[in-house]
Design brief:
0% strand, mainly alpha
Length: 326
């Protein structure tokens, strides 16, 4: 899985999570439309908006689960202290996984907890699942090494929280908790994992840190809805531009998803002047790696490269700002 480069700028995309999620959701909807021509545009737009916000809600849910699993360390400490015959390890144990400054910046963040409540991420959590996940993590050498540190630094705390999230994503219980709420979460996995990593690496958190990943109206409407609308409206025109580029390829044999990605990319090149051409090219190649066939990335890269050179020569690609074409 790959994510957008962090050193580019565009007026319509406010974050990595925004842009990748938008493109993937539009691609999925165009595929649905290809399979069911009875769908109408208002239905597609509603599906699109619901899907975009589900990605953000999943980010909030996973971040809250990291907090709740870490909180089990306090219960672990209480259980150890209550033993009639505690071991030396029990006596030495400290719930630092939860009491550290990084995780506490979430635990005491009123606005974040309000967002959690808003999306009901704190409802119907199986306490037994949380305990089992913590116990499984407790057995890892990484956690034991962390507990053995005489004086853990904030960097140590960040590392163990990243390790905790990595570990959780390998656990069936964690995946089950996720799938119960978000049936298509695999489509958003790389986006959400990247967002959680970015959040943890910036801990301790303060302010409205979560807003970085909230779908902005600008991105959702000005980019996503327009990309969906124009790709639908100009379907035949886009195909007419792509078809001559398919040297040694029969258009009917091109994978449906590949043709959709080509049309979306072409639409982006022609109608979104603030998105650099390199970003468009790279993004659709990367998306094809995750969602299409093994050979798709080379096919899409080759076709888009030829298309871009032709359209630039004809001065049909117009970009605003320095460095957006190169």
């Amino acid at each position: 899985h790959t994510r957008l480069p962090s050193d580019w700028s565009s007026d319509v995309c406010s974050s990595d999570l925004d842009c990748r999620s938008v493109r993937v959701k539009v691609m999925q909807l165009l595929y649905m439309l290809n399979r069911d021509e009875q769908l109408n545009f208002p239905e597609l737009v509603k599906e699109y908006n619901d899907g975009i916000w589900n990605t953000y809600e999943l980010y909030i849910f996973h971040l809250f689960l990291v907090l709740k699993v870490a909180q089990q360390a306090e219960k672990d400490a209480a259980n150890r202290a209550a033993k009639l015959l505690p071991t030396e390890e029990d006596k030495q144990f400290k719930p630092v996984l939860y009491t550290n400054s990084c995780i506490q910046s979430l635990a005491n963040h009123i606005d974040f907890l309000n967002i959690v409540s808003k999306y009901k991420a704190n409802e119907n959590l199986d306490e037994d699942y949380l305990r089992k996940l913590y116990q499984a993590f407790n057995d890892t050498p990484e956690y034991q090494a962390y507990l053995a540190l005489p004086e853990a630094t904030e960097e140590d705390h960040r590392k163990i929280l990243l390790e905790l999230y990595r570990f959780l994503n390998t656990q069936d219980l964690f995946l089950e908790m996720t799938e119960d709420r978000y049936t298509n979460w695999q489509d958003d996995e790389s986006l959400v994992v990247g967002a959680i990593k970015k959040t943890v690496k910036a801990m301790p958190q303060s302010g409205a840190f979560y807003q970085e990943f909230e779908p902005s109206d600008e991105t959702v409407r000005e980019f996503g809805e327009q990309l969906l609308r124009k790709t639908c409206q100009e379907d035949q025109e886009l195909f007419a531009l792509i078809d001559p580029m398919l040297k040694n390829w029969d258009a009917e044999r091109v994978a449906v998803l590949d043709m959709i990605l080509l049309k979306m990319a072409l639409c982006e090149l022609l109608h979104f002047p603030t998105i650099p051409t390199k970003v468009t090219l790279n993004e659709y190649v990367e998306i094809s790696k995750v969602y299409s066939t093994e050979k798709s990335k080379d096919f899409i890269n080759g076709i888009l490269d030829r298309l871009m050179k032709k359209l630039l020569k004809e001065e049909r690609i117009v970009k605003e700002g320095r460095g957006l074409i190169e």
